[in-house]
User: Fold this.
Amino acid sequence: MRIGVALIHGFFAPVGMRFFLRQIIYNRGVVKVIYDAAIIGAGVVGALTARELSRYDIRICVLEAASDAATGSSKANSGIVHAGYDAMPGTLKALLNVRGNGLFGEVTKELGVPFKRIGSLVLAFSEEGMETVRKLYSRGLDNGVPDMKILNSGDEVLKMEPNISAKVVGALHAPSAGITNPYELTYAGLENAVANGTELITGARVIGISYDGYGGHDVNSGHDECGDCGVYHGNHGYIGAGGYDGAGGVFTINTARGPIWSRFVINAAGIYSDKLSEMIGDDHFSIRPRKGEYLLLDKEQGHQVHSVIFQTPAALGKGILVTPTADGNLLIGPSAGDIEDREDLSTTASGMENVTDGALKSVPGINLRQVVTSFAGLRTVPSTGDFIIGPSMKNRRFINAAGIDSPGLTSAPAIALYIRDILKVEGLELVPKKFFDPVRKPIARFSDATDEEREALIRDNHLYGNVVCRCELVTEAEIVEAIRRPAGAKSVDAVKRRTRSGMGRCQGGFCTPRIAEIISRECGIPMQEVRKNEGGSILLTGKTKGVQ
Amino acid sequence: MREVELAIIGGGPGGLAAAIEAYRNGVRKIVLLERDRSLGGILKQCVHSGFGLQLFGEELTGPEYAERFTKQVMELGIDIKLETMVIGITSDKLVSAVNSAEGLISFKARALILAMGCRERPRGALNIPGTRPAGIYTAGTAQRFVNMEGYMPGKKVVILGSGDIGLIMARRMTLEGAEVKMVCELMPYSGGLKRNIMQCLEDFGIPLRLSHTVVEIHGRERLEGVTVAEVDKSGRPVPGTNEYVECDTLLLSVGLIPENELSKMASIELDPATSGPFVDEACQTSAEGIFACGNVVYVHDLVDYVTQEGYLAGKSAAEYLSRKAGDGPEGGLGAESGAESRAESGAGSGAVSGAESGAGLGEKIPEVLKIHAGYGVRCIIPQFVRRSCKNDVSLFFRVAGNYRDVVLEARAGGRAVCSVRKKVVSPGEMESIRLKSEIIRSINSEVLEIGIRTLGDKEAKETKGEI
Assistant:
């Protein structure tokens, strides 16, 4: 009898026996696992949704096309926790932004992820700009953004941020804005979900979805929803008419790793969420990739500003921002350009010029010679202009969490709760687990530790005494743990995102060979198979003549 | 906390020579801290020959050269700590380090020698547009993979930057069966040694494209190609010169940066021109009793010079320690230089610097003579010379461009005190002027300016691409 990989993993999950028996059916002699919910996409939305659902006594899997989580938009964005004055009142963006912002403190505390509520400033350089500032202020009030203040003179702004251009005439100050590390939040959410029984299946690109609806039901049963987009509007969470008996069919999700069966599907496929939706015949929305290019500067530039500095918004986005990162670097960007190719993460000379021009307008003293790296990310811009979160009109058990562009990161904790509520209404029985542990401990960072803590770390694990990445002071112990953790790293970039190794000023010049060696050892693969990130990104093409 | 007389940070050629010379001059309680698994620094991955010509009159490989010094250091019984990363130093010479065997360790040293070397400039610092695939390495990383780990980083190679490591790697990759398509150099001249251009490129028929750079990187997972373009005088790509070159590997040899993160922790003053600490003729930094040698001070052309500087630093530290044992405190560089008003350095050749007027007012001439870069000179080591120094002092400097038929001059108060005629000078090779100690004592201006003067007083011409 062949047993699915997912099932074997399942044995280690803290699930009850009753539950188990319910989930296994025999089909021509093959054990088939039917998940209650399959989350497609291990970005920040998928990860936090998985974590939220892992509180309940249901069987969940997360399917990820790439070999690691957080490789799409969740990897390359501004890392800003927005206050919530940008979105138009009444939209899902407005609702979930402010709600998500409010949840961020607790979520990041439980998950051990950096989060600093450093506040934001929207700078105005003219009376016209001040007009926008006032507009944002009143929008913020409508959206429920707390403690905002309009600074009516340049001096007031400069008192807060002395390095800002003297041309500033005023600003909107929103103290509830903050910064976080978007991919660390994703990993943390997933790790916690996995620790609570969720199964993560990487390399599982979805090829097709079919639905066996033997429990079939009417999909249009008079919910309180917007006729255009199928989104539920309202200020108190998801409201649905309910009325299902909980029975229903099963999705067969064909993936690059084989078929997966699930009663519910959550589409958190990011830039491909429209393509996934089309697989069940729902093409009511489309996603347009909008590229944003960034420059990351050395930590020596990290003190240029102490809050998130925006300019008044432009047509395609919030304009070029200047912000310290959660790790202490300075980040400037993003540019904004609509593109066709959903895999195009290339930077361009014009995009980078756009970023530097914009950043210098806000903070003229930025030393561009201290640029450490540049990168691009894609915003998943929805055709509807708002987040698309809700059951599909084609099949109510297919829940979209699509078109999550900015403020998607901020909203993610609220989106997770929103999806949970939708699932409940759509008939998924959610009984809280007895053993849910909300806490995920971060990998203890040698560089952040005090001397006493460092001594203790080395005493417990001597690998904490081996500094591998000199610039960021990352030790072998941290790298090994990043690999061994649930939802662990398998590539050099995956290790880098979890530990900061290679993110410093030498950009991996010294540590790449050492990290490759550790991955090779820990994963039991030859050096020639160690990858930078995905598929063909091997580091080395072979052995030298002498050692062949 | 362990007390030592001398702590040396870095076990490359600079640190090794410093340790040996300090020992020879009577220092016994020395600790040498090295972050790698063995001593020798970057020499270990430099398996090519050409090391030691100046010092030993022999062509040694990097590991052979290193071996001569590591052996001595071992024989002298100097305390060596390998795989030990120094994580902090203070201006009063407190050194904290970590290793897996002992955990956190700290030393209270009476003198300190910084010999941390340098690192390579990465791609990020260049901001080349395009994708971020695998297959882009600094030349030194590739060198480590090939020479120490036994792996090939790729098969079809483009090298950006004609620094020495890039040139050496062009040959090394070719010998290992890779196809090196070209070496692109942004400048109209190479920053590498002449002999390396001949032996590593010309002998293998590898084209050197001067005034060319990589303007775009292609390939999503692994590098698939680069677009190269010609650049104008200001380094901007010339439209219409784009050329796609298929390759799976891009090696970067675009400059070395002295590693001074620790120096900054100790508030040691750094020279923006070298990115290394300001030093005097005895290798002392702005912090009293903290010396620096090798590529942490500035990037040397030859390891032989690093060794010589290491010897000097070791000897100076020993002298400092014996002086300290004898009498009271003395100031570091900063102690005297801080109070002086900074003299304007003349921009053009023959310009009278502000230093002259400053010195002519009958004020007490400071003990420290400042060395400034004049016309055609990019940076100088040392930046300060004590007038009381007993020995002759060699000033090393890098010129700003290629020049022919020039005189290298040291001028004080508008008057040349020392000059050397040169047929050709180029930024790829360090120049030097040796100042006799009696000349140094005779200078009564605050500043000594080093500049180049073209013969016949003609405007210096930059010769494009030729050497």
About this structure: Residues 352 and 528 of chain A are 34 Å apart (CA to CA). The longest helix of chain A spans residues 92-111.
